[in-house]
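sanity check this:
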Amino acid sequence: MKKINCTVLNVCLILLIGLMFLGAAPEKPKPDKDWPKTYAIGSGTGAVYYAIAGGIGAISEKYLGIAGIPSKTSGAEETARLLHRNEIQFGFITPDVGSDCVRGIGSFQKTGKLNVRVILQDFPLGYTITTLEGKGINSPSDLKGKAGHIGGRASPICRTFFKETLQAYGMKAEDLKASLPHDTVSEAIEALIVGKVDFFIDPTPHPSAKWAELAATHPMKIVNIDDEHMKKMVKNVPYMFPMKITGGTYKTMPKDATVSAFSSIVCGNGDLPDRFVYELTKAVWTHFDEFKTYHAGAKYFSTEAVKRINYMPYHPGAIKYYKEIGVWTKELDERQNKLLAEIGAKR
């Protein structure tokens, strides 16, 4: 009897130990001396960016033991400058700013080339022309003589997309009754609802809560850009691509609509420790199912999008991870080397 009790006790002990291991906290990589204790993630002005930045920070704290703190900036240009000075370590950059900042052109002529590199991709945002039924806007060509909000005040890429849209349809800004910048999308939506403007344009992932709220109470309509005009626009802006919003995404939108889009990417200071960047990149993608719960827009990130980010170099630590999972090819090595040679950098 004692022998049986002893056997039962041993089995219970083994099961208890197994359960302890199953419930144990995830093992964290041992940090190097040059790893930051905490770090900041520039999130721009959008709530979407802030939520996803919080997700990156939470994943980092849970699996690396290092907290990432979201930090508001005025937009991509300020984010790039703060990254270069290492006042923040990561941040969201739009492709126009990313391309210009590493080359020291455009808004960065005075600062010169910035030490900013790509870490994570891809966060596609549709530059969405939104109106209401009854406003007489069925195509971008109908914007002539109308008044609207055309994008964020601190967003140069919105101005670029607006200019290209009008140009593709044979118009200029002067052909509109008014083209106004806005500080928040809520401001633009309110102006549309009360009749101050006929349309508004703002970049967003779809589906978007703001658009769903508008469609729930008003006859919202997203203006389609046809293939012919989209090809003209994409030809002039290499980082622009078409995004299809499937019919039924919103209550008042039964048919598909195509809008122009760009990808916002997460960049980092180029001198961040390679192993730290590698481990952070790995943590986000390894635990992607958890990461994408922090905001609906996070699900649009993709490892495959390394093929599309062709205007600025990647951080070596991120490249190491993408090579490990097989998405980084010899062609991407050639592209990386070409970009580094173009901007006169070694890494």
Remarks:
- The chain has two domains: 38-124+263-343, 125-262.
- The mean pLDDT is 90.
